[in-house]
Write a structure and sequence with these properties.
29% of the residues lie in helices and 17% in strands. By secondary structure, it is of the alpha+beta class.
Length: 286
């Protein structure tokens, strides 16, 4: 990959401030975080858990120096880089982490004054809350990334027995935690439950010939009530995105695969259980 000078991309930035002189004492590569108003060295191996003036809690590492060689542009020094990642949301940060192994002279740019994208933790007036996603599904790649970033001891696993609630029609309604709870929870109507049950066993429209969104897949398989009262709140908590624009295959690939392999969600579930019992996975050790 050819070396890229950041100053060659004027459309990314509205103001440029000179970078401090780079330090040659650091042995480990650092990420540089760049926003529209200033160059901010942002990522290294040491962690920070600070709160800025708006209450945003930054769960990132702070770099005190960096190792990339500078080049002069208009009298100011700018780093020459192997790669520039545009956007410091979760996708940009994960990409930067992966490619930094081969391209250590790396810069991550961001238009806002903080990293994280839609992942936003706010601490204000003694309260702590999430304005974006509040959890993630612990897949093997996600856990491996967390461990590689030094966050193993910071992971907080959800209690599977803890009650979950959805606010619906001005009332907190419990989400069923096991199959025996399904007939009794009041988040869905009886017709809605019947629609979901029949759809899950395969009595629903056939899959279309194009890639479905999360909303399209759930409405077709399980009905409108499951989508509006269960899946839509879940998508907000995990992806902070619009389920009508999220790819079902990309966001919930395991559920999508159930229908593909078993002809229905229930059929695919039984098939997956049978395969898992005959070929058990080794214990997780990211």
């Amino acid at each position: 990959m050819t070396t890229t000078a950041v100053a060659n991309h004027p459309s990314i930035f509205t103001h440029r401030s000179p970078l401090p002189s780079p330090s040659s004492s650091s042995s480990s590569p650092s990420f540089l975080f760049l926003n529209r108003t200033n160059f901010i060295p942002y990522f290294s191996t040491s962690k920070s858990n600070s709160v800025n003036c708006n209450g945003w809690r930054t769960r990132c590492s702070v770099a005190k120096d960096y190792t990339v060689p500078p080049s002069k542009v208009d009298g100011n020094q700018f780093p020459e880089l192997d790669c520039v990642v545009v956007g410091a949301g979760i996708s940009g940060l994960c990409i930067a982490k992966v490619i930094s192994a081969n391209y250590p002279n790396l810069m991550v740019t961001e238009a806002r004054d903080r990293a994280g994208g839609n992942i936003t933790t706010v601490e204000r007036d003694g309260y702590l809350w999430e304005e974006g996603p509040n959890s993630f599904q612990p897949s093997d790649p996600m856990l491996t990334m967390a461990v590689d970033c030094g966050l193993k001891d910071d992971l907080v696993l959800g209690d599977p027995d803890a009650p979950r609630f959805v606010l619906w029609k001005d009332k907190l309604r419990p989400v069923p935690g096991k199959l025996t709870d399904l007939p009794f929870f009041d988040l869905m109507s009886i017709p809605g439950k019947l629609r979901a049950g029949f759809g899950a066993i395969g009595l629903r429209p056939s899959p279309p010939g194009y890639e479905e969104s999360v909303e399209q897949f759930v409405r077709r398989n399980l009905g409108a009530e499951v989508f509006e009262r269960l899946i839509e709140p879940f998508c907000s908590g995990v992806y902070a995105g619009d389920p009508s624009k999220l790819s079902m295959k990309a966001a919930f690939g395991k559920v999508w695969k159930l229908e593909q392999t078993g002809g229905s969600i229930i059929g695919g579930t039984f098939k997956a259980i049978k395969e898992r019992s005959s070929n058990p996975k080794p214990p997780r050790d990211p």
